[in-house]
Write a structure and sequence with these properties.
Elements (H helix, E strand, L loop, with lengths): L4 H20 L3 H7 E6 L1 H18 L2 E6 L10 H6 L6 E5 H9 L9 E6 L1 E6 L10 H10 L3 E4 L2 H13 L3 H4 L3 E4 L4 H6 L5 E5 H4 L5 E6 L8 E7 L6 H11 L2 H9 L3 E2 L5
Parallel strand pairs: 1-2, 1-3, 6-7, 6-8
Antiparallel strand pairs: 3-10, 4-10, 4-11, 5-8, 5-9
């Protein structure tokens, strides 16, 4: 039998190159193995973005972060993305919404891990007078006085719309001047002057330039939201997702989480 050595060497070289590319994530199999795709709601987005580089450095994984709200009818919300079966190894969103995804079979049962406790705050446009929000009565006066109010389409906004203004007895007065913000951070709307007052999770208000953070709602009106992580049932890299969740609940993550206006909902190890 005659062997064509140059051709054999070319075939072997091609196989070696393919293996190397896959290992680096340049082929579909490699990309799935070495990339952790995360869909995160805004409440934890700043924290996961800040923590991802160190996780990548120590783990060898690449973290791909996609944004979406915990709930609502927007096409880029996390439930809508999973309904379309968009690629995702894990999701981070309000615990109630995460549990609903488990019930729908889109997140692995018992993979849920609580990450942080998030409070609702208020912001105004940069340089504007900051209202008194130290008590329930003060918040009531601030909402009545504001010419326009923006609130989120996610957990904090649902609370504002369904509970807060009813509790204060001012639904009829403030609902007409309140706008539900979809697919954008409330602080950005306030920063450009499209709303005089904005309510959202503190962690989503703090990063916005052009808006001044006023403070958190007082205890009598406050409603904390737990943001949690879970592994999707169609995850291409469940191992990487679990390693990232472990890192996000480690002692190394605590300082960054607090800096972003959140309280850890786990016991750091």
């Amino acid at each position: 039998m005659q062997i064509n050595f140059p051709r054999r060497r070319a075939v072997l070289a091609a196989i070696a190159l393919s293996a190397a590319l896959a290992a680096c994530g340049h082929l579909p199999g490699g990309a799935q193995k070495n990339t952790v795709t995360v869909i995160s709601s805004g409440g934890f987005a700043s924290s996961v973005e800040a923590l991802a580089p160190q996780f990548e450095k120590q783990s060898g994984y690449q973290v791909d972060i996609i944004h979406g709200s915990s709930m609502g009818g927007a096409t880029d919300s996390i439930p809508a993305r999973l309904d379309r079966q968009e690629p995702a190894d894990m999701v981070i969103l309000a615990r109630k919404s995460l549990d609903q995804l488990v019930d729908k079979g889109q997140v692995v049962k018992d993979s849920q891990v609580d990450l942080v406790r998030s409070l609702i705050g208020i912001s105004v446009q940069k340089g504007a007078a900051k209202p008194d929000i130290s008590s329930a009565d003060a918040v009531k006066r601030a909402l009545l006085a504001a010419p326009s109010i923006a609130y989120s389409a996610s957990a904090s906004g649902t609370y504002y719309e369904k509970e807060l203004i009813k509790k204060l007895g001012i639904q009829a007065q403030v609902k007409p001047k309140s706008k539900r913000i979809v697919s954008e951070r409330v602080g950005a709307v306030v920063a450009r002057g499209d709303a005089a007052l904005g309510l959202q999770q503190v962690s989503e208000l703090l990063p916005i330039k052009g808006a001044d953070y006023v403070g958190v709602l007082p205890p009598a009106l406050q409603k904390a939201t737990i943001f949690s992580a879970g592994v999707t049932t169609h995850a291409r890299n469940p191992q990487g997702a679990n390693e990232l969740i472990k890192y996000l609940t480690s002692a190394a993550a605590v300082e960054t989480i607090k800096k972003n206006g959140l309280e850890p909902a786990f016991s750091a190890k």
